[in-house]
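Thread: Modeling a multi-component assembly for a lab meeting

Hi all, long-time lurker, first post. My supervisor asked me to bring a structural picture of a complex we are working on to next week's group meeting, and I have zero experience with this. I have the sequence lines for every component (687 residues in total). Could someone generate the structure of the whole assembly? Inputs are pasted exactly as I received them:
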Amino acid sequence: MSLNDLRRGQCGTIINVPDENLRIQLLRFGIINGTQVSCHCKLPFGPVVLKYGGQEIAIGRDIARQVTIKAVL
Amino acid sequence: MSPSCCSNTACVEAGQRNIVLVGNPNVGKSIFFSAWSGIYADVSNFPGTTVEISRGKIGEDILLDTPGVYGVSSFNDEERVARDVILTADLVVNVVDATHLERDLFLSLQLADMAIPMVVALNFCDEAEILGIRVDTKLLEERLGVPVVSTSAVKNRGLKEVFAALPLARAGLSHPEIDQAVINLLDRIDTRPEALMVLEGDEVVAERHGVAPENDRERVYLLRRQRANDIVAATVNRPEKSARFRDLLGRLCLHPASGLLILGAVLWGCYQLIGVWVAGDIVGLTEEAIMQGHWEPWIRGLVDPLVAESSVLGQILIGEFGLLTMTITYLLGLLLPLVVGFYVALSLLEDSGYLPRLATFVDRLMTSIGLNGRAIIPVILGFGCVQLGTITTRILGCKRERTIATAILNFVVPCSAQIGVIAGMLAAVGFMLSLTYVAVIFTCLAVLGTVLNKVIPGQSSALLIDLPPMRLPRPANVLRKTVIRSFFFMKEAYIWFFAGSLGVSLLQVSGGLKAWQDLVAPLTVGWLHLPKEAATAFVMGMVRRDFGAAGLTDLALSPWQVVVSLVVITLFVPCIASLMILFKERGFKEATTVWLGAWILAFGVGGLLAQIVL
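Re: Modeling a multi-component assembly
Sure thing. I ran the full set together rather than chain by chain. Output:
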């Protein structure tokens, strides 16, 4: 599944970010493969807001779709 | 001396040290800057609104503030500026946010790998304490290899202590693997910070040294990220859950229903502040009572005995568009209060952390016109002043987005000064006709955005934005930002007002205005069904758009003529000042296209409407 499939309050672990530029940007924000993120909220058809380690970032739908994750139960 | 030194403002004289403040966006660097140097620095809550470098003095040394960045590299303008300043640094003060060290330590460790002498200011310690976050500063100091000082800059705590620690600054501990790779490059590149940049594949720095950039960025970044995470795991104790009021507030800003309500409330608040209070009450006092009531009679009385008002020079100095009368009144009585009001609103929004959430909220809508949510910032600024909006398009990710946003700003967004006049005229024609005006403008916006999105090749970047915590704006900070921004704005703008008034005065005294009216009469009267004199408004509109709108208020127009003329003047070419910025930011070809295109759009749409309704 992708980041875009996360529902509000659900957690996921990052598995793969295919685009190098995006990978680097996320890495600097503190997100790498294996990082656990939670979905703070999600706008209809819009960005996903992630929360991790006391921080929030908003990711547009187009790039959220590219990021593969594994849901954490 | 590195080749980068004299290419930016950070050029130093011998003997002085460059002390550089470095940190992520919104960590409070600028408070350190103003506390130490006494000179104002712009403090911003929206990632990336300051590209200018603030520069001050501490004793013999120079203190430089850099734009907030998440790392030293070349992803955007801010980073390139920050990189070049950091490369000149003799000493770095790295300000980090104790509430999210995971993010901030990446930059700290990069600076450590550069081995520039450094002191770390652990800021927002008070906030961390409230959140129950405990940071072991002793251990952090040990792991980084540099002094770490706890601070709470907004409460003025720890600033002196960091200053006192400056002599203790030392190069941080580098990651052993990165250290070795950098050392291997030092035979080709003279300084260590630059060698690190080349190792991380920075093309600009590599070119300066005539070497090929290395391809090690991702490996180096991953090593550094792992190390940052390890340090956080060892030094930070964070409670599991923290349901808080501002978390809730932040979420409410993003929820479709409550977000819309909040947006509505924010816009209403801005309208009340700027549109009603400043544009009405304050301007009524400053423009009419003070400037027109006292200043203009006084200066006329002073000048008239020396230069008669009826003479050519008299017309230029104290006539209808006089440099000493109307221009001064306009600048101080009308523009200044509006600009101050606008910057107060903007600073409040910035400092509260609302703007990035607004960008997230409108992202979906903006993607349909080829922009991402971030573009709402320049558009909102554009409603204040199109110039300001155009400059701010720099924060957008790629050239394509900047082109679309700039076009929208310069074609369809009326500026605050113009909105004031437009709103006044619409109030007189009733609700349905006002609605027609708004509908026409929004249709133009949607069509323009959609067409540009289809026509311009490439793809726009998607939203990726850091949402800083919602914070209550501090009045002192809002005030300081407002004062400095208004000052710089007025400093840039005043010359255009004098030039514009002079131009219109010259046209008037030379009879050019009449000739122009006759020249475009077929267009004005035949196509737009407006009186011939409306052409004067178009000349004035080229100088200042609100001049243009104001020029219409004196004409006797039927309600539908009002709507047609307002549509034309809204879609009309940007004012001279905006046009100059447009040329500077977007280049000759694009600026000329926009300017000529605005003529066609304004008269095309206005004329079509006139053919239908008149």
